[in-house]
Amino acid sequence: MMSGMHSDKKWLIKSENKVLGPYNFEQIEDLLLKKQISLIDEVRDTDTRWLYLRENPEFKKTIDAIRARLDSKAESTKAIHTNVSHVVSMTATANTEGTTTLNQQTKSMVPQYTDVNVQEASVVSEQINEVISKAQEDSDSNERARAATKVKNYAFHSDIRTKEKVSIFSKRFFIGLVTIFILAAGGMSGYAYYTKYSQQKTEQDLISQIKRYKLLGLDQKALDAYAKLPVLLQQKYLVDVVELFPLLEAAGLVQVKDLDTVERSPDLTLENKVSILLARFWFFMQTQNFELAQNQIVKAKAIQPANKIVIENEAILDLKNGQYKKAVDAFVKLYSLESAGRYIVGAIQGLQGLSPAERSKMSPDIERLVDRHVATKYDFKKELLLAQLAFAKNHDNDILFKLSWKQFLNTPTQLQALFKKPLLVAPFSYLWKDLESYKATVRQGLPPTDEVLFQIHNYLESSQLSAAVDYADKNTNSISDIAIKQQITLMIDFALNKRQDIVMLERADKLDKKSELNHLLLALNQVELNPSKAIDSHIEFFRNNNLKFYGQWVRLARLIKLNSVPEIQAYLKDNFLTEEDFVPVQEARGLVEP
Question: What is this structure's pTM?
Fold first, then answer.
């Protein structure tokens, strides 16, 4: 049925809010025939948008063929039902003419069902026999009723008291029937009201949950609760979860066109309007349509010029458009309002594009912000340590360079991914790959061993795992220090989730026991493998070396893995008070919140 030209094309199916596939044409046809997917499910390939299966022109022949099969089956079924109905009708009519005639007619009708299989014939026979029995019972009941009526009329025809009693009984019986009817109607109405009330209460509870989860920063829980709402209510309350648009869009619950419907609501607040514009901005940035993205920011800024996410997204657009000084000024102002590491990363990105004179003027303030942040915070610490190394190199400050280098090597890669930022901040922002000029400055004059270490960190930070493995295979033989070689292996194995390989590496006892990074990765690996096993030696190391954040991190990770809700509640009261955006903290709160 499928043409050869489509045999290699792959398709995705969206069915009941789940994305299935990829499938080829033959697999989709088989799923349709087995009714595992339906014609109202959506389909797309890599080059098209989502369409209903029945609307996709490439599936027209297949769907027509399947409909033809279904129609032929429906006609066959209809014929069987028609014949059965005919027999039942004739049987009922024959009952008025006598049982003997009925049986004769029924027997005479049986041969015409030669196209019905044995099982179907048995069913038909049973239905006919039931009709016959019922007709006979009704006939007997009618005869008995007529006889009883004659007796009563004869016995009580001239009895006045009996007539009065019968009249009273009839009135009472009528009143009883009316009462029963009223009670039944009231009960049905009450049940319908209770059902409707229960449904509304369930929906209101879900909506309250969504708002509470969103307030607590539990975005995934808010998304899960929203997905449980009926489709009509999802459309109605979309305005309350617009800030989650990237998650909703990824889950297939909304599309960018749904924002147009929400925007037409007459009861929108200013915050609602800005959120809708920012959601569109996010979508246009995702699709690299910077002109339309700029239009959304202009409109949002006209409504709320002091909105921090609007200012931040405008600064990110300024970086894209080459307006570096304007971007740097905006990021510095944002950091003065909120000490978030990503703002400084945006500022150091902007510094790369300034003229030498502008850079010389603005660098001192940025350098002070970098020094202050890496001393106390961990969000975007790897990126800021890279900038600090470059600043130290430019100023020939060897002491600062050595201190920053040690911190750089002891900071895990991909740490910034463990810190949550607002969902409507432009995608593809604050990336490691956008700091190339700082990397080039740091690499100048590095010894061979340090060059290898830097490149391994660089590949892992960029999520280039294959490149990291290949580079290590080609270059670690040049390193004489076995502890450094073992640490490189540990970092790569951890990034690749090779848990048992890390255990064997730890047992070899050749890792540097004074390395902060080694203790962190070994502790986190042990938590993933067996959280019940003690990690006291690692926690003691963190305590002795004043590494409070690492110590809190591994202890919280262990409690999460053990799903120890009471201990998590107690732990969060005294820890991570300044790191609320740390993703493990959000995960722990999700376990605590019902």
Answer: 0.67
